[in-house]
Structure formats: C-alpha cells, structure tokens
Design goal:
The protein has 501 residues and is of the alpha/beta class. Helices cover 31% and strands 27% of the residues.
C-alpha cells in the first residue's frame, strides 16, 4: 500500500530498532521507542482537548523533545509551528498574530517567556503531556481521516518586506521530498547526521524524517560550536558523524580558517550543501581534506518543501566557475521562464519555476502573497496547474546542467549597467587572502558596498579587483570585518550588512 502519512516512517522503524537513539543533543537522548510513545501521548492530549486540524505552536529550546512534540502534533491531526526563544521578539509576535493558535506546547523555560506575548490559549507543558496515557482508538480514528494532502507543519520565512510568511507543507510533499533526497544521498540505518540548522527552519527536514525512515541517528550540534571550527570538527569525530547537510557558510567557516591543517572530520563520507554558492577555492579545500567523500550541491526553496534539485560533484571546476545545481529530483520539473512568460532557450537566463508534488500548499492566512508566486503555469493553457515562482534566476550550461545565476533582487542597475552582485562576490572570493565576502547595494547613495573577512588590505583588494572586473562593477566602498554576520540558519545576513552601510 502506498504511504500517505509521514508517521508511517516511525511506526515501521520502532518495530525494528526501538532502543536505538534517534535524536540526541548530549543532554537528552530519545530512542525511537521514546519518540513513538511521547508523540502518541501528545497526540492523545490534543484530541482530548478538542484541538484538531489546526496549528499548534511548539515553543521550545532546540532539543530532542521539541522534535517529538512536532510528531505529536501530526498524530493529533494538527500541524506544528516551530518557534524558538532565540527568534526576535517582534517576529514571534507577528507569528502569533498570524496563527491565532489555541494551543502552545512548551518547556519550562519558554513557558516563562510566553507572558511577553499576546497569547491566551492553552499552554501545554511537554513533560506533562508526553507521559499521558495513549488513546489508541482516538489516534486510529484520526489516522483513518487523514489524507496525504493534509498539512503537517508551517514554517515561517522572512519575506523581502521583513514580514514573516508561513509556508504550509503536507504529508504528500514531505514524503516525496524525503524519498527523493534519501535516494540521491544514499541514507541508511548507519547514517549519523549532525544537524546544523535551527528546528524552526525547513532545512532540518533533511535529518528529521530520514532518521525516522531508516532508523538513523541525528545529533543536534550546539550552536556555539559554529564559532569554533576546531571544536566543531572534534564534535563530529567524537560522535562519528558520517553525513552532514549544511548551508555553505557553515562549511566555509571551517575551511577558510585552516582548520584542516590541524584536524579533519575523519568519519564524513557524505557532504551535502546548499542555500548559497560554494566558492570553488573553499570547496577544493573540503575535497582535498576528504578525497573519498561524496559531495552534492542541493537547491530548493521552502515553498517547494526544501530541496528540489541536486548535482553530484564528480568533476573539477575552475576557480571562477560555479558548481551547477544540476537537475530536478524525480517527480519534479524545473521551468526557466522569461519575463514575457515564454521558456528560456538553452543558455538564456530565466526565472527558476518549480512544478510537481514538491509544491507546498501556499502561505497560511495570506491568499494575496500565495497568489503572487503560486501561479498558473504560463506554458499550459489547457487546465489548472500551479507552479511556484522562486525569484531565482538560472540558465542551462552547455552540458544541460542548471546553473544558479542570482536572486532577482540581487540584480541592480548601476551606472546604466545591469549587475549581478553575486558575480562581484565570486571574483572577490578568488583573491588570495580573502576568506569570505558579501556585497550589497546602497540605493540611496547608488553605491556598491563590499564587506569581507581576510588578511588582505582593502586597498590591495580593490587594486586586484580592477584586473578582474569592469570599472562599473568595482565596489564604491570596501570594509574589512572581523567576522561576517549570519542568520540563524547559517546564511550570510545581507540585511545586517545593509545596516552597516
């Protein structure tokens, strides 16, 4: 019978390896039996309180219990909405306002923080509800009514306006994603993940659900370790981590500071990366340190349930090349569409649009924004068919591989020329003595501003750039930083850079 519910992963695995550790943060460990019993207890409590087919906020510190709370919401026929105390207060307030949720699952720490927000619903303490008796009959009735198109989570992304948008995903799109990702990266029962991202981002799907599917183990890496590259690699070795799916910034933070001269992650055999362009100089350091590891570039938006394209890196690239994002997962199609709604020809740049089961349901309580980007396929005039417009620009290279060109909003008009800020960053990252860089555009002053971390002097950097870039692309202002700002997800924080201008 075809799988229609994500919890079927857990139900099959708990029969095989009930006492194996599923999720650990070095303080708390949950076995598959723990996850199963805790989540079914939580689902039973939600049912007893009449909370059904609605959002349930999970407001907890990052820990294994937070993951079990997610699954408890799904068992209860609801959809979980992760919130973490590290998120900005104004952002949490906006999310509460958007949801109007009737219940919050929290730990003791976050229960104290709830008083700061306008929430008058039911507060459910994890440690109390996770040990309540399971209502097997109620859970069975809920399961019988669940469809694969029912929502299971809402994750909030930052819109270009700064107002968070809640992306709703369902069983069908998540199952499609996990099956394809697992096939591409070769996960199995021996996989040991190191989770890098906060649990309120969809990026954590890459570890959470494959762990359930295979009976693998996920370790939640302490956030502070990402400030100390050597200690981070020591952590990977201590836990015999063999698989990481991290944003590029987290990887370059290790390679850029000569960590591999002192220590290498000796158990790693699978390295997946995404969300940003991986500078070839830094990527080569990883390949040299791990010559037998498999490297895969992943691409995809939250609105298409995480990642939808992949490229297995099996050839060398010149320092000024970009690693392709390759091609789509099975059961997904990528369309490159120009501004006039016609398909881009080979080599032409078009907006990357996604078609297929991977599409999420849209934005919660936001039909206007949903209608802007989940649109009728302009190449199909015969019947209703939605595609998602990513806002990313791409093209096919001479090998037929998809190349990420830029974000639409990273394109600027400067001195009469259309410029890709990413192209400036690529050339800056090639320069010896530069560890990482970020480029922004000050619209008020019509200036390109470059920030970088490295040993090289800014005047020398500009002199070298004059040999690489046309005059109109040379940054008008260059600032050297001690460290680049990153978002909670580990990406370069361009909004923070703009505030430094």
């Amino acid at each position: 019978m075809q799988q229609t519910n994500v919890m079927e992963y857990l139900e099959a695995t708990v029969l095989r390896v009930p006492e194996k550790v599923a999720f650990s943060d070095d303080t708390t460990e949950l076995t598959f039996a723990d996850v199963y019993s805790h989540s079914r207890s939580i689902g039973s409590v939600l049912h007893s309180k009449g909370i059904y087919r609605e959002p349930v906020v999970v407001f907890m510190e990052k820990q294994p219990k937070m993951i079990a709370a997610f699954f408890g919401c799904v068992y209860g026929g609801c959809y979980y909405v992760p919130i973490d105390a590290e998120m900005p207060k104004f952002r949490i307030e906006l999310i509460f306002q958007n949801l109007n949720a009737r219940a919050v699952i929290c730990d003791e720490h976050c229960k104290e923080l709830l008083g700061e927000y306008d929430f008058d619903g039911e507060v459910l303490l994890y440690d109390s509800i996770s040990s309540c008796p399971e209502d097997t009959l109620a859970l069975s009735e809920i399961r019988d009514k669940q469809l694969d198109t029912d929502p299971i989570y809402i994750v909030f992304t930052s819109g270009s306006t700064g107002v968070p948008k809640g992306v709703i995903a369902c069983h069908r799109s998540v199952i499609d994603y996990i099956e394809n990702l697992s096939d591409v990266l070769g996960f199995n029962e021996d996989t040991r993940f190191a989770n890098q991202t906060p649990l309120y981002f969809d990026a954590c799907l890459k570890e959470l659900y494959p762990t359930l599917k295979y009976g693998a183990t996920t370790y939640l890496v302490p956030k502070q370790l990402f400030m100390f590259p050597i200690k981070l690699v020591e952590y990977l070795n201590d836990h015999k981590i063999n698989t990481i799916c991290w944003v590029v910034s987290a990887l370059t933070m290790i390679s850029a500071f000569r960590t591999f001269e002192k220590i290498v992650p000796e158990y790693l055999h699978t390295v997946a990366f995404g969300s940003e362009v991986f500078p070839i100089k830094q990527f080569n350091r990883w390949r040299e340190a791990l010559p037998n590891a498999k490297f895969t570039n992943l691409y995809g938006p939250t609105e298409a349930t995480g990642m939808c394209c992949y490229f297995k890196v099996e050839r060398d690239f010149a320092l000024d090349e970009v690693i392709p994002i390759g091609g789509p997962f099975h059961n997904t199609e990528i369309l490159l569409i120009k501004d006039d709604n016609t398909p881009a020809l080979d080599g032409e740049v078009g907006e990357i649009c996604v078609r297929g089961t991977s599409l999420t349901l849209g934005y919660y309580n936001n039909p206007e924004k949903t209608a802007e980007v989940f649109v009728q396929n302009p190449l199909n005039k015969n019947y209703p068919e939605l595609i998602y417009k990513t806002g990313d620009l791409g093209r096919l290279n001479e090998r037929g591989e998809l190349i990420f060109v830029s974000r639409k909003d990273y394109q600027i008009k400067h001195m009469g020329h259309r410029i890709e800020l990413g192209e400036i960053e690529v050339n800056v990252n090639l320069i010896k003595g530069v560890n990482m860089s970020g480029c922004v555009y000050d619209k008020e002053k019509s200036k390109i501003v470059l920030f970088y971390v490295g040993e090289i002097d800014s005047s020398e950097l500009i002199a070298l750039l004059k040999d690489k870039l046309p005059r109109y692309m040379i940054p008008n202002k260059v600032e050297k930083l001690e460290a680049m700002p990153f978002t909670a997800n580990g990406k370069l924080d361009r909004i923070a850079l703009l505030k430094m201008v």
